[in-house]
Structures are given as structure tokens and as C-alpha cells.
Design goal:
The structure is a homodimer. By secondary structure, the first copy, chain A, is mostly helical. Chain A has helices spanning about 15-30, 40-45, 50-55, 60-80, 90-100, 105-115, 125-140, 145-165, 175-185, 190-195. Chain A has a single domain, classed as Tetracycline Repressor, domain 2 (Orthogonal Bundle). The structure holds a DNA duplex (30 and 30 nucleotides).
Chain lengths: ~210, ~210
DNA sequence: TTGCGTTGTAATCATCCGATTACCTAATTC
DNA sequence: GAATTAGGTAATCGGATGATTACAACGCAA
């Protein structure tokens, strides 16, 4: 019922910092960079709004840190997978690693928000750099061909979109959704579905 | 050098309406829903800001119209492709149609912006509906299997991300970008590259 | 020309948001 | 235990933004 961390009075700034970063990741992931406010982040972290901006300088720098941390997690998860059991093909190991990452929607959602802001002079640059870092990892460290890497990334982007769209919210009401999700997350469907329950006020889909 | 349409004095409201919708598509596509302002749209369309909101009621309704029009264009392009030359496989026809759509970045970018806003109570619903409409078209009208449709959509999502990220801006400076783009747009690379010149102030990528 | 509906804008409003300032209080040090 | 640093917040500011209102100019019909 209670939150995981419920400290009273003072806390080390470093601890508070990761709390705020976690909150920012969730908020930015749901609302996007421009749609989120520093006050939303502050409330989610249980601190005051001025404290958030003073810790990170600007809203933009806060988002860049969130983005950077998301990329770090992906890269390290992939590196672990690459160093894993050589019996199973590397593409499958990486796929499993990616699947594990979906447990925290915000990681992948923040990446997607950055990816579609390529026209932004500062976020766009970081998005391109981060994306190409991942591509290079697939090519050079995982030993994939350009076509294999492209195909792997394509599947990942579709998974990201499906998560961002909250398609799981319509799992119960639309058989086509079930079918598609089954194709996007082969074998893992039931597992991943448990981690993505529909929002409380899930509106039934209306056709236009 | 001059814009396509340069009418003086009065114009029929319907004509003006499509001008504003075109402008809105570009602006929303670049900045996203929350990042764009009605004033940016107004300036791009050459009208006053109050006129924009009076024509469409609210900024949200304007975005929904942009989104709806984008979906309509995709659906009709796909239906044309499905009705095309039966000699060439339908997946290839659809791929060509999708490639043609990339000529207007904003169509696909607005879709992506909507797709990552699934948590929004009104945009999210439209995003899911529109996406599933496309999926159903692939399954029922194009006769694809669930796996074929999923694979097709995956490739499309990667293409959208690559366009949104403005990866073409780094084509000249990064060989890995060239390689990846070659894998994402097989055969069509040179063709599509002509339609996506880098921004004037293209910042060279910095590694973090 | 007068009248009137359509097309459009200038001015303005209320709100929100990121950022700044000034201040407060719990620890830590000496 | 006084002094000092570190961890915070309340209050507020200036600018941006979506929306409203009131008004102006054009064009057409009688």
C-alpha cells in the first residue's frame, strides 16, 4: 500500500536525485518531453518543483539525463546478453534482453519520444547519437550483419510503439489486438501482459 | 523561391482550411503535439492565431484532424497498392506505397507522435484505433498473415523512426548511418535521400 | 448605396510553466 | 553549543500560450 521508500526528514542528495530521475522517467515517458512539466515530476518524486529544476539546471537537461540513463540501460542489457550463453543464437539472446527491458515502459518510451524529435537542435543530436550507438553495438559487438541489425531494430521499434500506444489496454476487447500482440511478442505474450495492466479508466475503442 | 499559393485578399474558407491543415501537419510533425503552438501553425499558414483556433475549436481538435488525414492518406495509398499489378507480390506493392508516403515526412511523423501518446485519454484512443485499422487492412484486404503484417509494420516503424530522427542529416558524416539507411530502404536509398536534405544548421554528431 | 453575411485580425485575458530569489531547517564540524 | 554546510521549500516573477471578444474589411445581392 505504501511506497517503497518513505523516508522522513532529510535524505542524501544523491539518493533524492535517483528518486527524481525515476519519477522524471515515468512522467516524461507518459507525457513526452514537451507535454511533461517539472511540477509533475516534482509531485511524482515527492519534492518541490524548484528543487527539481535546481538539481538539474533546466527541464531540458533533466530530460537529457533521463534519456542518457535509458540508453545506458539498453546498452548494458545488450552487452550482458552478448556475453551470455553461446549455445543460443545471439539474436535470440538480445531479443530476450529486450523483452526484459519492456518491464519498465518508461525506458523505451523516452527513447521513442527523443527519436521523433529529430528536429530539436539538442535532443535530436542525442537521439541520433544514441540510436547509432545501439546500431554499432549490434554490428560490431553482437556480430550482426546490417540486415540482421536492421531487422532486429525494426522489431524493437514496433514493440516500442505497441507499448507507447498502450495497445495492451485493448487486449480484452479486440481480438485483432490479441492476434497482433501475439505476433509481436511470440511466446512471451502472457508473460508480458501481466506487466502491462490496462489503465483504470480504459476507454473502449471508438471507430471513426 | 515563392510559395506555391500566394493569393491576395480574400479566399474561400475551405481553401484556407486545407492550407492551415497542411501547415499544422508540418508543425505538429516537427514539434509534436505538446511542443507545437497554435501560433506556430498560424504563422506557417500565413493567418492569425485566433483564426486557427476558431476554425478548429481547440488545438487538440486540430491535431486530431491532422492525425485523421494522415491515416486516411495511408489507408488510401495502401488500398491503391492492393488494387495494383497482381504480377508483383502484394507486400512489395505495399512497400512501394509506403516509400511514396515518405515523400511527406509529416504524415508519418504525426502518426508516430500520436502512437507514443497512448496515455492521453483522447489522442491515445485515436492512435490505437488508427493503428488497428491499418493492421486489419493488412490482414483482411491485403491478405497478409499475422506474422507478415507484423513484419511489415515493424519495417514501417523503423522507417518512421529514422525519418523522425532525421538520420539522413548525418548521411554525409557517418558511414554507419549510410549502411543502416541502405538496409532500411533497400534499392531506394538514393531516391529517398534526394527528398530529405539535411537541415541548414546541421550539427555534427557528438559522442557522449 | 445600403445592407448583410463571410473572412479575417488586433487586442486582450486567464492560466500555466520554468526559473529565480530568499529563506528555513536538519545535520555536521569545530 | 555555536558556526557552518547541506538539503530543502514558499513565494513569486516573467514570459508563453490557448482561448475569447470585439471589431474591421471585403464581396455580393437588392
Amino acid at each position: 500500500m505504501s511506497s517503497v521508500i518513505e523516508k522522513k526528514s532529510r535524505m542524501a542528495a544523491d539518493e533524492r536525485r535517483v528518486l527524481v530521475l525515476d519519477a522524471a522517467s515515468t512522467v516524461f515517458g507518459n507525457a513526452g518531453y514537451a507535454g511533461a512539466t517539472t511540477d509533475m515530476v516534482a509531485r511524482a518524486a515527492g519534492v518541490s518543483q524548484p528543487y527539481v529544476v535546481r538539481m538539474f539546471g533546466t527541464k531540458e537537461q533533466l530530460f537529457l539525463e533521463v534519456l542518457h540513463r535509458a540508453l545506458e540501460r539498453i546498452m548494458s542489457a545488450f552487452r550482458e546478453a552478448i556475453a551470455g550463453d553461446p549455445e543460443v543464437p545471439v539474436a535470440r539472446r538480445l531479443g530476450n534482453a529486450y523483452f526484459t527491458l519492456t518491464a519498465d515502459r518508461s525506458i523505451l518510451l523516452n527513447l521513442m519520444h527523443a527519436f521523433v524529435l529529430g528536429a530539436d537542435p539538442v535532443i535530436g543530436v542525442q537521439a541520433r547519437c544514441g540510436f547509432m550507438d545501439v546500431y554499432r553495438l549490434l554490428r560490431e559487438e553482437a556480430g550482426m550483419s546490417a540486415e540482421e541489425a536492421s531487422e532486429f531494430l525494426a522489431g524493437g521499434m514496433l514493440a516500442n510503439v505497441v507499448l507507447g500506444m498502450r495497445l495492451f489496454d485493448d487486449y480484452a476487447t479486440d481480438p485483432a489486438v490479441r492476434e497482433l500482440l501475439g505476433a509481436v511478442f511470440p511466446e512471451k505474450l502472457e508473460l508480458i501482459r501481466k506487466g502491462h495492466p490496462p489503465l483504470p479508466a480504459s476507454t473502449p475503442p471508438r471507430v471513426t
